[in-house]
């Protein structure tokens, strides 16, 4: 018996050419980050910030490809955080997806007025969220 040559493993083009997009998840509830990480971890590389202030610091230090931003947080809420992100030169181009249980047209309008690029109402379909993020990054 002869020695078999190893065949090259085919690697998907995405893996070869570029890493997974990075998503900064901003939520005062760590459990929500854990749920998103379990759902989105195969598609994206996720990092976490627990407040609007830490979001701004993280986004400037290591700009993500997109930000998933909870609306209802103590201190700087999602709307104010989004306004600050969109009015800061280092972060103004980062797409922001607001994620909230607030579902009225008025609340969604407030999100878009603050500068978000998309608004997703909880509970949401993971598939829909992934598609929405992929259109932005």
UniProtKB/TrEMBL annotation:
SMART domains the record matches: REC
Alphabetical list of PANTHER family matching this protein: RESPONSE REGULATORY DOMAIN-CONTAINING PROTEIN (PTHR44591:SF3), STRESS RESPONSE REGULATOR PROTEIN 1 (PTHR44591)
Residue ranges that the Swiss-Prot or TrEMBL entry lists as coiled coil: none
Name of the protein this chain belongs to: Response regulatory domain-containing protein
Keyword NAD in annotation: no
Positions of the Response regulatory domain: 22-137
Cross-referenced SUPFAM superfamilies: CheY-like
Annotated Pfam families: Response_reg
Record-linked Gene3D superfamilies: 3.40.50.2300
Top-level taxon of origin: Bacteria
UniProt keywords, alphabetically: Phosphoprotein
Keyword hit for Phosphoprotein: yes
Residues recorded with modification 4-aspartylphosphate: 70
Entry-linked InterPro entries: Bact_response_regulator, CheY-like_superfamily, Sig_transdc_resp-reg_receiver
């Amino acid at each position: 018996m002869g020695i078999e040559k190893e065949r090259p493993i085919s690697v998907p083009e995405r893996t070869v050419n570029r890493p997974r997009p990075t998503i900064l998840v901003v939520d005062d509830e760590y459990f929500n980050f854990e749920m998103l990480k379990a759902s989105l971890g195969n598609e994206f590389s996720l990092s976490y910030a627990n407040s609007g202030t830490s979001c701004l610091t993280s986004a400037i230090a290591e700009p993500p490809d997109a930000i998933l931003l909870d609306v209802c947080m103590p201190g700087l809420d999602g709307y104010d955080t989004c306004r600050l992100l969109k009015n800061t030169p280092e972060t103004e181009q980062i797409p922001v997806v607001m994620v909230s249980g607030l579902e009225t047209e008025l609340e969604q309008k407030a999100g878009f007025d603050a500068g978000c690029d998309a608004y997703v109402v909880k509970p949401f379909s993971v598939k829909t969220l992934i598609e929405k993020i992929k259109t932005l990054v």
